[in-house]
Amino acid sequence: MTPPALKSHTPQRVLISGVSNPLGAEVARRLATQVPTLFGCDVADPVSAVEAMDFVHADTRHAVIGKLVRQLHIDTVVHMAVKVDSHGDDRTVHETNVIGTMNVLTGCAGPSSPVRRLVVKSSQAVYGASPAYPSFVTEEVAGSDRHAYGLKRDLLDMEQLAQEFSLRTPGCRVCILRLGYRVSEGTTLGQYLSLPIVPTFAGFDPRLQLLHEDDAAEAVVRSALNDHEGVFNVAGDGIVLLSQAIGIMGGRPVPLLPFYGRWIGRLAMRAIGVDLPGHLAEVLTFGSVADCSRLAQTFRWKPAYTTRAVMDSLARGRDAEVIDSPSPPQEYELQVFLQRRRRLAGNSLRGTPALTLRK
Question: Do 251 and 193 contact (CB within 8 A), yes or no?
Fold first, then answer.
């Protein structure tokens, strides 16, 4: 028997994990104008002040996240606390991506859970990169590599947990977004392409597909506000060759890195100040291009920036303007003060005690 269709869900009380990073902060800024009540959590303070968002220090790696979801009566969770372009040790990345996601899902599960919508940030890195892949990898390709390791293994495990949760929890719609590679100034790929002399893997000029920060934030917001379910690739139209991307940035490619020992190339890159993760070394050897037709058909939307436009934007220095710069300490303290005043005023009008969030 086919299960009854879920009723359309309009977000009322939204929780965003991972608001201390620029993308999470931008998603919070946009959602703050579109939902009645917004909460954010992370281990560090938000990168920019969002006065309409109540913030609490909470680590998704701890089970307290479930208590937070229930006590705040959250109906929509946007899980952004996922490390992709990270220089932390593998254990920290694994705990954040896999254990953290497991705790979030546990907090959203059960008959007492008010959650009806879950958005999980994943990455195109879930595919890895291989010369055996088709020209455009579809959402079904991921999961075929049983010998995956590192970030790819963590993302596969994280997505499997989310998909199993979706099957066990028919009352909650789950959307997984595999965001494409981004090249803003704070990313490793952006730093690599901005070098004046760029070491490349000898004999390779891979195809690159990119995603603008603005489009990444818009995709997450649209997922939170709508009822689309499933897994979606999110990246800009078109491609650029690595040599073209370097040329757009005004650099010069130098084929010095051996392809047969990419770890040696990574050590060489680290010596010049660029810590190149293993999954990026694969992409810079074999390339990665994803099929985003499912996104366009389901969302009736696609990223505004093409891959070439993303590179042009980076070259003009515009990416730094998309995400707000970090707030000075005084502005963040003002945000906290105003939030407390707003909560106290709202609760006094209702005659109920104020909810206290740990700062």
Answer: yes
Cβ atoms 55, 342 nearer than 8 A: no
CATH architecture entry for 13-322 = 3-Layer(aba) Sandwich (3.40)
**Degrees (nearest 5) of the Cα angle 308, 290, 244?**
30
Mean per-residue pLDDT, 158-181: 96
- Single pTM value for the model: 0.86
CB of 113 closer than 8 Å to CB of 68: no
Nearest to 78 by CA among 176, 163, 164, 202: 176
- Per DSSP, 196 falls in state S
Q: Which SS3 state, helix, strand or coil, does residue 166 take? A: helix
pLDDT in tens, 80-127: 999 998 766 788 899 999 999 999 999 999 888 899 999 999 999 999
Q: Which residue has the tokens 């105003």?
A: 338
Closest CA to 236 of 289, 299, 315, 300: 289
- State pLDDT tens for residues 45-75: 887 778 889 999 999 998 888 889 999 999 9
Dihedral class, residue 187 (left if φ above 0, else alpha if ψ from -120 to 50, else beta): beta
Cα(312)–Cα(184) distance, integer angstroms: 11
In 89-193, where does DSSP find H-type helix?
A: 90-94, 100-108, 150-168, 188-193
User: What tokens does 226 get?
Assistant: 């709508």
Amino acid 268 reads A
Measured CA to CA, the distance from residue 221 to residue 27 in angstroms comes to 6
CB atoms within 10 A of CB 165: 20
Contacts of 207 (CB under 8 A, 6+ apart): 239, 240, 241, 287, 288, 289
Structure tokens at 206: 């891979």
Domain ranges in the chain?
Answer: 13-322
Are 180 and 85 within 8 A, CB to CB? no
By DSSP bridging, strand 207-208 and strand 240-241 are antiparallel
Instruction: Assign 197 to helix, strand or coil.
Output: strand
